Amino acid sequence: MTTIDLGLPGLAGVPAADEPQKAKDYKSDQEVRWCPGCGDYVVLNAVQSFLPSLGLKRENIVFVSGIGCSSRFPYYMNTYGIHSIHGRAPAIATGLATARPDLSVWVVTGDGDALSIGGNHLIHTLRRNVNLKILLFNNRIYGLTKGQYSPTSETGKVTKSTPMGSLDYPFNPVSLALGAEATFVGRALDSDRKGLTEVLRQAAEHRGSALVEIYQNCPIFNDGAFDVLKEPGQAEQRLIPLEHGKPIRFGAEGEYGVVRSGFGALEVAKVEEVGEDALVVHDAHATDPSYAFALSRLSTQDLSHTVTGVFRSVRRETYDDLARAQVAEAREAKPTDLQSLLRGKDTWTVVG
């Protein structure tokens, strides 16, 4: 059996496809049932077009989802899939990745599913560095339950559940992931096919937990939430793209850049005022997550600035690799004997 080898550490041990595949090979026979204009269509198409490049057997790819509009994703993929329960997809995916190293495990979730009821599972999956990939669709609203504010809705957001405006301060999912010391964190827009595909490619190649936040439009309950990031003349002034080893610079003419500020922070400045040498050169492989976290804080609720690309990509032993090694060590030191375990010294008598 051929497996993916050293060139793609995140996929090591996963069987390779016998012959080249195409996007259509990843499309299931199920009717795609999202609202017309939903950003989920774009992400689905991008994933189906991207996966053939990995060269994996489809039967060794698994998509696990929770509850929400995005969580219908597994139905539309011609791979194995699990439509699980609200917020628990990372926990189920952890079990799969640990028990089956021959699988490429993906989690599809939304801002409500992942960051509300599923917040606890998400942060522990990231800190454990389980070898799985998490696609977090962020439309800043609860879509499936019809328009309540979510953990990423901006302060003051008027919704069915906040008629006078939300009082909550929203999560920045990238900051949250970096706070949990995730080894790979990225962000992309549903409308940026090239940028999304590149972040997905790097996430797939990463060995460990990879979280990719995807800004995605909900045309029914939060239409136009990210339009300002797509408008000519606006996008260039707001989007800050990251490329490892390159100075962080943006604007229609590259007139803006990112520089260091006080107390380890970063800020935006005009290049002509600070000079080329003052610009920060992006280092996605920095061991300490503080730099990547500072980058994540440049992104604002009003989208005046939004950082995209790969914030962090570092190597660290994965939970599932360590767990399998520990089990193997225990078996070698003391072969499993169920009867000895059941009749050993550690017994108790329960008196009713």
From TrEMBL:
Keywords: Oxidoreductase. One of its GO terms (molecular function) is magnesium ion binding. GO terms for biological process: cellular respiration. The keyword Oxidoreductase applies. InterPro entries: 2-oxoacid:Fd_oxidoreductase, THDP-binding, TPP_enzyme_TPP-bd. The keyword Oxidoreductase applies. Residues 67-214 form the Thiamine pyrophosphate enzyme TPP-binding domain. It holds the Pfam family TPP_enzyme_C. It comes from the Bacteria. PANTHER family: 2-OXOGLUTARATE OXIDOREDUCTASE SUBUNIT KORB, 2-OXOGLUTARATE OXIDOREDUCTASE SUBUNIT KORB-RELATED. This is 2-oxoglutarate ferredoxin oxidoreductase subunit beta. The gene is korB.
